[in-house]
Amino acid sequence: MINKTIQEVAAYLNAPCIQDEDDLRIHGVCIDSREVRPESLYIPILGQRVDGHSFVDSVRKAGCKASLWQKDHKPYPEDMALVLVEDTTQALQQLAKAYLQSLSCKVIAVTGSNGKTSCKDMLYSIFSQETKTQKTQGNRNNEIGLPLTILDFDADIEVAILEMGMENKGEIEFLCAIAPPDISVITTIGSAHMENLGGKKQIAQAKLEILENLKPNGLFLYDKTSPEIDECLQEMQIDPSKKIVSFGCGGDVILTSDIVTKEDHIEFTCSCLDQKVILHSLGAIQASNALPCIYIGLYCGLKQESILYGLQHLTMTKMRMQLVKANGYMILDDSYKSNPESAKAAIDALESLPVSFRIACLADMLDLGPTGKDLHLQIGEYASIKNVDVLYGYGPLTKFTVEGFQGKEKAWFETKEEMIEALRKYKDQDCAILIKGSRAMAMDKVVSALKGE
């Protein structure tokens, strides 16, 4: 993580520093007063509900000796070195940009409606076999999280893998201004954020800011099965020095075999490797997510053996297509978020599992706009033709999912607790239970309950 003197921090920000001690060094930054360490640089963020400046007393009690500070927040706290700035959020972003520029690392940026976290995890596992690699932790992929991720990078980092999230146009461009990528990936274009942007083409246009802001001579990869990207590319003026590669059906990098599903992994071959890939994850969508990662690894000169080993020994971020066996249940935990495309991919993964009985526990998919009712109904219909035996729903929109399902058993529940109780009868059975819903639906609580936590 960042390890600089407070004067170097001030120089990065072109800002005055007061009350500083000679050679005072900061090691890492922190925006949460509850997590600050004596060596941290505290950055008080002025949020909609909470002003980080108001917690300075607890920060000082923790032994922290340095902070960014908005000039208009007087009186200034004593006994701390303060770098005075106009806006602490902007200063955080400026500091991250300057720090990244001081590092000698390749930046790989990943965005997409679905699969960006999986793609990030795969890239990290591949590159870590040969290089000092660091990645976005958790979901720190926005205007606050991305700068914090960068400031966690070590000085000797060689490859930085950054996840970039968005909800509106201009947000990817903003993140790329902080961290201009050498390589960028769009995994998919889906229905997420339809409510904000209006349609898939508009979503593609917003995602393609990651290409527009790619460094000259950079590499860009995109999902060929998202036709909106091809449509937008034809309308764009693109720097000819940038290399563009498509992956997936009809693309430059493709699967060359059927996907074979084992108990905890999938196997396949692809056009850019001459050996079988064993991927420690489940679902056809994960094979698709692996394609750009394999290509990027080869493009950057990694050994084929390193790429294969990284994918076989992959550790995925929790709540993303994670197969969990605990307390007598086999759970396919994909509870972090949901939209129509990822819900279908999760149902596909459920269908592929070698079990006698399959149960889908689904909650609302949010931010779909006026099409939400029909899209939920379609998920129920999709599950009906995918060997799902039981469908349980939670949330007002999922009533339509249950309505569309024509399997052996279905039920809609007003509470997660009712759903959990209904699942108890499947303990110690030869079945798999998919848990999925938008983040706000907190379906991870169902997973925790079944695990006995």
TrEMBL record:
Enzyme class, spelled out: ligase
Residues that hold ATP according to the record: G112, S113, N114, G115, K116, T117, S118
Signal peptide (residue range): none
Reactions mediated catalytically: D-alanyl-D-alanine + UDP-N-acetyl-alpha-D-muramoyl-L-alanyl-gamma-D-glutamyl-meso-2,6-diaminopimelate + ATP = UDP-N-acetyl-alpha-D-muramoyl-L-alanyl-gamma-D-glutamyl-meso-2,6-diaminopimeloyl-D-alanyl-D-alanine + ADP + phosphate + H(+)
The species this protein was found in: Faecalicoccus pleomorphus
Functional pathway: Cell wall biogenesis; peptidoglycan biosynthesis
Protein name: UDP-N-acetylmuramoyl-tripeptide--D-alanyl-D-alanine ligase
Mur ligase central domain: residues covered: 110-295
Protein's job: Involved in cell wall formation. Catalyzes the final step in the synthesis of UDP-N-acetylmuramoyl-pentapeptide, the precursor of murein.
Keywords: ATP-binding, Cell cycle, Cell division, Cell shape, Cell wall biogenesis/degradation, Cytoplasm, Ligase, Nucleotide-binding, Peptidoglycan synthesis
Record InterPro entries: Mur-like_cat_sf (IPR036565), Mur_ligase_C (IPR004101), Mur_ligase_C_dom_sf (IPR036615), Mur_ligase_cen (IPR013221), Mur_ligase_N (IPR000713), MurCDEF_CellWall_CoF430Synth (IPR051046), MurE/MurF_N (IPR035911), UDP-N-AcMur_synth (IPR005863)
The keyword Cell division belongs to this UniProt entry's keyword annotation: yes
EC number: 6.3.2.10
GO cellular component terms, A-Z: cytoplasm
Pfam families in the cross-refs: Mur_ligase, Mur_ligase_C, Mur_ligase_M
Record family assignment: Belongs to the MurCDEF family. MurF subfamily.
Presence of the UniProt keyword Ligase in the record: yes
Biological processes per GO annotation: cell division; cell wall organization; peptidoglycan biosynthetic process; regulation of cell shape
Domain Mur ligase N-terminal catalytic: 25-99
GO MF annotation list: ATP binding; UDP-N-acetylmuramoyl-tripeptide-D-alanyl-D-alanine ligase activity; UDP-N-acetylmuramoylalanyl-D-glutamyl-2,6-diaminopimelate-D-alanyl-D-alanine ligase activity
Location relative to the cell: Cytoplasm
Domain Mur ligase C-terminal span(s) in chain numbering: 319-439
